[in-house]
Amino acid sequence: MPHREELPCSSSQRENSFDSRIGLYIGVLSINSILLIVIFVLNGVWGGKGQGKTFQTELIFQAMGIEPVIMSAGELESDRAGEPGKLIRERYRTASQVVQNQGKMSCLMINDIDAGLGRFGNTQMTVNNQIVVGTLMNLSDNPTRVSIGQDWRESDITNRVPIIVTGNDFSTIYAPLIRDGRMEKFYWQPTKEDIVNIVHRMYEKDDISKDEVVTIVETFPNQALDFYGALRSRTYDRSISKWIEDIGGIENLGNKLLGRKKNEELPVYTPPQ
Questions:
Q1: Rounded to the nearest 10 degrees, what angle do helices 192-202 and 53-64 cross at?
Q2: Chain centre distance of CA 31
Q3: Lowest pLDDT segment from 19-33, 69-83, 111-125
Q4: Local structure of residue 100 (DSSP, 8 states)
Q5: Which Gene3D superfamilies match (predicted)?
Q6: What number is the average pLDDT over the span 119-138?
Q7: How many CB atoms lie within 10 A of CB 24?
Q8: Longest dimension (CA), the chain
């Protein structure tokens, strides 16, 4: 059975904005118990590198008051067979307990899943890769029965919580995991308006107006969102370099930072004009 499938971007995928698409998915899944339809537990957000998938998702969590449980692709492999699959089940149950004990919405988020499960060139699939794929497929099919090795109890029902995964290329992932009916997929490719809004939010602490953000985006067109984040960091790097020169160079940096008084404030850097 082939492990790759094409993932075309349909027009319906682009009609909805990022926040409305993810927010709708989380909201509908949260009230799934009173709906007479089956809602996918797995939701995949994929697109080019540095396009703000994780950043946007975290903003949505803040806006909706969601307490997420976060995993990275680095936790999908281990020197012990079965450990990553067990970790996913434990994190899923943790998210479920947030709903039950804290009365907050929650979800399990796995960043860059294709980095951990994707097949690239001549790479080999490990036992843990297979177990992780099987675990996610099982959670999608049976989201209310999640075992972590404890004794079976009929009353042990896990709250159904969303699993949101991000990635750059889902075609590298085992096809049955991402098939229609098991995972809801959303392709994210921001328009110029999307980029302006996100960069404006990114620069909000710098008191930069939206018109100025438009000028920045038009000055550096066709760039991924991470470029504008790096641009912001680079401007502060120059200010910090100047401060280091003012205190006598890098030779005095350690004494200046470690020898400062407890209540002494570090310099405040203003955004560039």
A1: 70
A2: 23
A3: 19-33
A4: I
A5: 1.10.8.1070, P-loop containing nucleotide triphosphate hydrolases (3.40.50.300)
A6: 88
A7: 11
A8: 70
- Which domains does the chain show, CATH number per domain? 11-189 (3.40.50.300), 193-258 (no CATH)
Cα(255)–Cα(2) distance, rounded to whole angstroms?
60
Which ranges in 77-166 belong to alpha helices (H)? 83-97, 113-117, 127-141
Find residue 69's DSSP bridge partners: 108
Residue 191 token pair: 């328009």
Statement: residue 182 has pLDDT above 50:
yes
Q: What is the dihedral of CA 200, 204, 206, 210, to 10 degrees?
A: 40
The CA R_g of the chain, rounded to the nearest whole Å, is: 22
- Locate 37 and state its tokens: 């339809």
The upper half-sphere exposure of residue 96, i.e. CA atoms within 13 Å in the direction of its Cβ, equals 18
Task: Specify the residue for token string 């094409």.
Answer: 6
Q: What is the DSSP letter of 53?
A: H
* pLDDT(108) > 50: yes
Q: How far is C-alpha 193 from the chain's CA centre? A: 21
Which of 8, 54, 14 lies closest to 188, judged by CA? Answer: 14
